[in-house]
Amino acid sequence: MMTNYEIMFIVKATLDESALKKLTTDVQKLITDNKSKVIEFKDMGRKKLAYPINKEVSGFYYLMNVEATHEVIQEFDRKLRINENILRHLILKKESE
Hints:
By secondary structure, the chain is of the alpha+beta class. It contains two helices and four strands. The chain has helices spanning 17-32, 70-82; strands spanning 3-12, 37-53, 56-68, 86-93. Strand 2 (37-53) and strand 3 (56-68) form a beta hairpin. The relative contact order is 0.34.
């Protein structure tokens, strides 16, 4: 069953532009390759972190709205957790209207 999720993730600010573009494309592919869809993808720009994470003081923030199954989200969560370029991520299940 497809459910709507809101995903926010923070990427290391030390990445160069091409690595950043590849990473954001790969993150979206994790969803789209599994018969799920990215409804909206928003680049929120570089922001200063509230506190240092792994000695990083700023990061690039991204917001995604996706429609996916629970299994796809579990695998997505696992892959983001092991990616060293992603400082933090948060997955929220959106309540259906």
